[in-house]
Amino acid sequence: MTKQELVAKMQENQAWLPGKTVKLDFGGDEGAVLLDGKNNQVSESGDGAADTTIKVSWADWEAMANGQLDGMTAFMTGKLKVEGDMSNAMQLQGVLAKLR
């Protein structure tokens, strides 16, 4: 899946947290995606402030989205880092479920 396909699928499945902004920062060339639950949209640019920023590699994100890597395991092993409101990160499983 490409980043553009991810954004389209997230938008279609309303994969955001209502009233919250969460940035998925994939680093490197992949950049970031902003899940804007305040405006009910997903943007590919990932620019702007967020309540929570989740830093994870693209490969680990795909593994999580496919159910091959548990979010808590990724966090505990340092594959996923959280900046900001941790409670938003805890709700990430619900977002991932919308992608399956």
Automatic annotation (TrEMBL):
SUPFAM superfamilies: SCP-like (SSF55718). GO terms for cellular component: cytosol. This is SCP2 domain-containing protein. It comes from the Bacteria. Residues 10-96 form the SCP2 domain.
